[in-house]
Amino acid sequence: MGAPRPGRVAVVLKGYPRLSETFIAQEIAALERHGLEILIVSLRFPTDRRTHPVHAEIRAPRLYLPEYLYREPLRVLRAWWRVRRWPAYRQVRALWLKDLARDPTPNRGRRFGQALVLASELPPDVRQLHVHFLHTPASVTRYAAALRGIPWTASAHAKDIWTTPDWEKREKLQACEWLVTCTAANFTHLAALAPQGRVELVYHGLDLARFPPAPVSLRARDGTSPDDPVVVLSVGRLVEKKGVDVLLRALALLPRTLHWRFVQVGGGPLRRVLESQARALGIADRVSWRGALTQDALLREYRAADIFALASRVASDGDRDGLPNVLMEAQSQELPCVASNISGIPELVEPGVTGLLVAPESAEDLAQALQSLIADPSQRRALGQAGRARVTARFGLESNVVRLAAKFGLPAAPAAVARAAVG
C-alpha cells in the first residue's frame, strides 16, 4: 500500500482523450471521486473528434508533450538547457544512451526529448508519476521521474506487455515503485520478471452506473425469420489482434438457411481489407460497419444485439488482448458472449456458464458456437444472465478502484461518492 504524500499525481498517457480507452478515463474519474488530485500528461494530442460522457466529468488539467520533437524545437531546447544542470541529468542521460544502444530507433530519441520537457514543465506540487502502458509512455515516465527525483508507478495492459522486450520490462519493474496489471495472465508473466511484491493484479472493472441493466427483452429470435434476423455484435479496433477476419470467415460458414446480421463497431487500419473480405465471402449485405462510437451510442448497440462475439488472437508481433472491457460491457447487458480462449478472457468467460470459448484462429469452432446460440434463445438468455451476475460480483469498477486508491495512499472510502446522473 502506498504511503500518503501531499501533492498531485501526474498520470502519463500515450494519448488523451481516446474513445478506445474508456477504461482509463473511468479509472481517472473514479480516483478523482476518491480525492486524488491529478494532472493528465499526454504524449499526443487527441485524434478522435468525439469523446465519451466520462471525459466531461474529469476535472484534471492537461499537459501535452511535443509528439514530434522537430515540431517544437525551441520548447525541447529550453527544457534541455534547464535540465542539463540538474544533479541527476548525467545519470539519466547515461541510462537513455544504454537503452538507445539496445534499441537504436528514432522513437527512443523522442522518448528522451519528451522526458526532458516533462521534467522541465512538471508543476512543483506533483509528487508522483503514474503511467498507463509499459512501453513508450513508461520510458518517458522513467526518465522524467529520475530527473525530478520522484517515484513513478505504472499500469500495464496488453500490447505494452507483449511487445516490449524482457530486458526492458525487467529494468522498468526494478525502477518503478509498484505496478498493477489487469489480468492473471499478465500478472504471472510480469511477476516473474519483477522483485517480489512489486506487481499486483487489479482488474479495470466496469462502471456499472454507466451500464445499467438492459430493459427486459425476450430476445426470442432464433434465426428462422428473414424479417427478424439474430444480431451478432463485435466491438474492437480493426487491427490484427482482434481477429475480425476470423469472425467474418465463421459467419460465412453458417448455414444459408440461418438468418443473422453482423454489426462491427470500431475503426482502424484494416477496414477496407475487411470490407473486401466480406464481399469476397458473399456476406457483405449482412454486415454493418459502424466505426468508432461514443459510449452512449455503443450502449444502444449492445441493447439491440442478441450475441456478442470477439475472435481475439495473438498478432504476428506478439500483441494480444488482455481482458477486453467490451466483454464486460456486453455481459452487463446480458448478452451471451463467444470469445477466444486466450489471455485473460477465461477469467471472465466461463465456458457453458457465462459464455462460450473457442480456439483462437478457428473459424470452424467459432461458427459452431455462433450457430448454437443463434438457434437457441433460451441458452442465450441463461448465459447472458449468468454473465451479468459475474460482472456485477467480481468486475465492478468501485471494488477494484478502492484497491488502486489505497496504493496511492488515499483513504479506504471516498469523502464523497455522489455523482451526477449519467444519461
What gross morphology would you assign? elongated
Spatial strand sequence of the major β-sheet: 3-2-1-4-5-6-7
The rounded distance between the terminal residues' Cα atoms is 35 Å
The CATH topology of the largest domain: Rossmann fold
Oligomer: single chain
The CATH class label of the largest domain is Alpha Beta
Number of strands: 13
What value does the Rg take, in angstroms? Answer: 23 Å
As a percent range, the share of strand residues is: 5-15%
Short synopsis of the structure:
The protein is α/β, with parallel strands linked by helices.
Plain-language structure description:
By secondary structure, the protein is of the alpha/beta class. It is 41% helix and 14% strand. It folds into two domains: 8-205 and 396-407, Rossmann fold; 230-394, Glycogen Phosphorylase B (Rossmann fold, 3-Layer(aba) Sandwich), CATH 3.40.50.2000. It contains 16 helices and 13 strands. The strands form two sheets. It has a seven-stranded parallel sheet with strand order 3-2-1-4-5-6-7, with helices on both faces. Strands 10-9-8-11-12-13 form a six-stranded parallel sheet, with helices on both faces. α1 crosses α16 and α5 (106-121) packs across α6 (136-148). The two termini are 35 Å apart.
